[in-house]
Write a structure and sequence with these properties.
With 358 residues, chain A is of the alpha/beta class. Helix content of chain A is 40%, strand content 16%. Chain A is globular, with a radius of gyration of 23 Å. The chains are: A alpha/beta (358), B alpha/beta (552).
């Protein structure tokens, strides 16, 4: 009787009071976890959905619910609905904190992931043969930004590159498919890196620099047509067998597939030889999420799980290298031969994005 | 005794709880009854996600039923065209009415700056390129190898009169829009995202290409059934998934279409299930649960196996029949100016013009409940305003005939919308509409015959169609049998003019269904009863008239 009644009440969803009255003292309440809601860049979505991560967070007293958004569009959301924001780099983190009216929020940077360009073997082979890339392993190589940007400035097409005719999909202008640089972190950081190269290997820091680099930025973006706001879209297009020949994603998206033993299919991972150094940044928006960032950064189990989802934990090159050793064909754990450069200020980067979008 | 104490207390508590539960149950029932008698859009119900979706997703219902069993999340789909959905989201109309959108693509929506901040998590679920399904006879006649066909080759075949095809209206349906982008890219030789200059340069060839379009439709689903009824169209532009499903469902009846993904590039739909920022937190949680499941291996396998869409999860193999050779992805325009410019060119310049007859019941009963007022306003809407968006008014070059009837045909007024100077014709239509008066009986069949005779008098190459709006049964003039034999005697070319009938007021569903089935048309519901994939519409008369535009 009591059981049937319990089910009936459950179905009716009439809430706590009655339920507690019926249960009496026979069933002590379990210790409640704290539910926190966060808005995150889509590249971290699988980490937070990972059942092991859910379990590890629950053990520390957290139930974490996440929604995704372009990192540079987070400041436009109704932030009071969220307990934390977790954009893909430190720059939009400042914007989020400002939009939420926070001063001196305790930001943490639990992990990071460099940007890479994924390609199918045919496209990588053509780039290498034409001096736009070098192969450093069976499924990995380096995208040579100097020659690549020169080709982009000259509107080079795949048809003009030797060896492309063997591949039906290699026609049209050579470009890297990025996300929208005005709303998404990876797209913005691609402009940060390419503008550095175009500005004589110097961070763009003034109007003169913007003027110098804007025409090339415009080219890199306008050839792409419609822009998505998250790397998940072009990445999934690639996995489903469609999509552009060269796609900018986070290394973590590829490393996660490899570490989860999912076959990435025919894929070559090209590390741009110039990249920006920036970490995914955790911004607590409410009291409830205040300690969560530190927990993600320091808890050994959560660090281990972050590696399994392809991220590089803070000061964790050794952890990352060890975990990805079986997949060395695809990855460059030591970022050998990659020049890390600084990011322009938010104001300059957004000005570049606006100019690029036209 | 002391052992019985707690048990007794427990029973007492249970009885109280039971009484309370009954009270709650009664209240809940009353509440449900109230809701169902209200308007179609209800507030968010725990665990039921209200989703504005592309109509071809009707084939996902079995997978969504699996999802419901696995996750407890029920999905309530409301059909919408891509551009219409973009408008609803950007204008804020979707706020509070839907929790998510699930369209073939968000590309057009993102060109609207107002949409920024309206969308929350976007999760691509599956993919399907827009392709060409070609009859084997046509393929043999053209000597084509499916893997080597390009858009210029298709154009050449069409221009030489060797290939005809059906395609949806790009203004209302994403498969048509994608095809328009593909063919404009292919024929302009654009090496990157389309520009206005590309479209201009390709215009003469695009015109030749669209001269071969013999079937149009507001949705990919109806295009398939219309194609099935017409034996004389060689090919169909549609999603690869729809073409392969057609082949499967024909079960050997009629030779299967060969799916051609043009070698020089395709536009692919990625079906991002997108939560709206305006949705309640509970709905967004339910949405996350659903997308997690849809992206899992079990769901991805079911999707590709049942619907022939390509999986987006690594390690899940695409269904047999999905060719793995890669294709260039043609970029979707990056600005609204280019996208809308392309659509406007299609509407007013590239496509074959329309010749449309409106057979309008203005019998005495149209005086009831201001039905005549609703008819006037619905027709006036189709003349647009000075700032109407693309596809929101009668097209340039369109011949519009108003044929109001009562006991017999009252008048036949024809106006042609002049390119570059649409004002005079649109004004004249507005004047005629304003003059419509309710009076007399209902001569449906005799008036329909007059409409066919009117269209028979024109010789230009055009999409011809008849819209029949009536609020009652046939009471005067010739009957159904007479019309049937009249139709049977029409020349073959004229038989292809479909009648799109609108259910309104007290019209006879059986009578109108017969007319639409006989002529290869479609029934639209303007009784406000809510739509279904089988009968389009479900809203107001104005909405039905607007929806029919996609079929003209």
């Amino acid at each position: 009787m009591r059981r049937i009644l319990g089910i009936l009440l459950g179905l009716l969803l009439i809430g706590g009071v009655l339920y507690v009255a019926l249960q009496g003292q026979d069933h002590p309440e379990s210790t409640a976890t704290k539910t926190v809601r966060g808005v995150i860049g889509s590249e971290k979505s699988e980490f937070f959905r990972d059942p092991d991560v859910v379990k590890a967070l629950a053990a520390k007293g957290y139930t974490v619910k996440t929604e995704t958004s372009g990192s540079w569009a987070m400041d436009q959301l109704a932030l009071k609905e969220f307990d934390f924001a977790f954009p893909g780099s430190s720059e939009p983190a400042k914007e989020v904190a400002a939009a939420a009216g926070l001063k001196g929020a305790q930001e943490t940077r639990p992990f990071y992931s460099p940007l890479v360009v994924i390609a199918r073997p045919g496209a990588a082979k053509v780039l290498a043969a034409d001096g736009l890339a070098t192969m450093t392993g069976k499924n990995t190589g380096t995208l040579l930004m100097g020659p690549f940007l020169k080709a982009a400035a000259e509107d080079r097409t795949w048809q003009q590159l030797a060896g492309s005719s063997a591949y039906a999909e290699l026609t049209g202008t050579v470009f890297v498919k990025t996300t929208d640089p005005a709303s998404s972190n990876s797209g913005a950081l691609f402009l940060a890196a390419t503008s550095n190269v175009a500005n004589g290997n110097t961070v763009v820091a003034d109007d003169a620099g913007i003027e110098r680099t804007a025409p090339l930025m415009r080219k890199l973006v306008s050839v792409q047509g419609a822009l998505e706001t998250s790397t998940d879209d072009p990445f999934r297009a690639f996995i489903s067998g469609s999509g552009e020949p060269l796609i900018l994603v986070y290394e973590s998206q590829v490393a996660s597939l490899l570490l989860q033993k999912q076959n990435p299919g025919e894929m070559v991972v090209l590390y741009p030889d110039t990249t920006v150094n920036t970490a995914h940044t955790f911004v607590p928006l409410s009291e409830d999420a205040k300690e969560l960032g530190t927990l993600l950064a320091t808890d050994p189990r959560l660090r281990e799980l972050a590696v399994l989802r392809g991220f590089r934990p803070q000061d964790g090159v050794a952890e990352f290298t060890a975990a990805t050793a079986p997949h060395a064909d695809y990855l460059n754990p030591g970022l050998t031969g990659i020049r890390q450069v600084g990011t322009p200020t938010v104001k300059i980067l957004m000005a570049l994005a606006q100019r690029a979008k036209g | 005794m002391s052992a019985a104490g707690p048990a007794l207390r427990g029973r007492r508590r249970a009885r109280t709880a039971l009484a309370l539960a009954v009270a709650v149950l009664t209240a809940a029932t009353a509440c449900t009854a109230q809701e169902s008698s209200g308007p179609a859009e209800t507030a968010y119900k725990e665990g039921t996600l209200r989703v504005l979706a592309s109509s071809e997703l009707a084939d996902m219902e079995p997978v969504l039923e699996q999802a419901r069993k696995a996750t407890g999340v029920t999905v309530k789909l409301t059909w919408s065209g891509t551009l219409d959905a973009a408008e609803q989201v950007a204008s804020g109309q979707a706020d509070g009415r839907y929790d998510a959108i699930w369209l073939s693509s968000n590309d057009y929506l993102r060109l609207r700056p107002e949409a920024a901040g309206k969308l929350s998590s976007e999760t691509p679920v599956m993919s399907s390129p827009v392709a060409l399904g070609v009859k084997p006879q046509a393929l043999a006649r053209l000597g084509w190898k499916p893997g080597e066909v390009t858009w210029p080759a298709v154009h050449e075949a069409v221009a030489a009169g060797k290939l005809t095809y059906g395609m949806t209206d790009p203004v209302r349906s994403n498969s048509g829009f994608s095809a328009l982008v593909s063919v404009a890219s292919g024929l302009s030789g654009a090496q990157s995202a389309l520009s206005d200059a590309d479209v201009k340069a390709a215009t003469p060839r695009l015109k030749e290409f669209f001269a071969g379009q013999k079937l149009t439709s507001g949705s990919s689903g109806w295009l398939v059934s219309a194609y099935g009824k017409r034996g004389d169209v060689d090919a169909l532009v549609n999603y690869e998934s729809v073409l392969l499903s057609m082949n499967r469902d024909a079960k050997g009846a009629g030779a299967p279409l060969t799916v051609v993904r043009p070698r020089d590039g395709v536009v692919t739909a990625h079906y991002p299930l997108t939560l709206l920022a305006s949705a309640p937190a509970g709905a967004r949680d339910a949405g996350r649960t659903l997308t997690d499941w849809l992206r899992g291996a079990e769901a991805q396998q079911a999707i590709t196996g049942q619907t022939f869409r390509r999986p987006v999860a690594a390690g899940v193999a695409p269904a047999a029949g999905l060719d793995q050779e890669k294709r260039r992805e043609l970029p979707f325009p990056g600005s609204r100016v280019v996208a809308d410019g392309l659509l406007a060119s299609y509407e007013n310049e590239l496509r074959r013009p329309s010749r449309t007859v409106y057979v309008l019941d203005t019998s005495g009963s149209m005086g009831d409940d201001d039905r005549i007022g609703r008819l006037r306003s619905a027709l006036t809407d189709l003349t647009g305003t000075g700032t109407s968006g693309t596809g929101r008014r009668f097209r340039d070059r369109e011949e519009v005939t108003l044929l109001p009837f009562g006991s017999k045909v009252k008048e036949v007024n024809t106006h042609v919308v002049e390119p570059g100077n649409p004002g005079p014709a649109l004004d004249a239509i507005r004047r005629d509409v304003k003059a419509l008066k309710p009076d007399g009986g209902t001569a449906i069949y005799g008036s329909l015959e007059a409409a066919y005779e009117q269209l028979g008098r024109g010789g230009t190459d055009a999409f011809t169609s008849i819209v029949l709006m009536t609020d009652g049964e046939n009471t005067e003039g010739v009957g159904a049998k007479h019309f049937d034999s009249f139709y049977a005697r029409l020349p073959e070319a004229q038989k292809r003019t479909p009648v799109f009938a609108v259910l309104f007021g007290d019209s006879d569903r059986k009578e109108l269904t017969h007319i639409t089935e006989l002529t290869g048309g479609r029934l639209f519901d303007a009784t406000g009863a809510g739509g279904s994939p089988a009968v389009a519409g479900g809203g107001s008369l104005a909405e039905a008239f607007e929806e029919i535009r996609g079929y003209q």
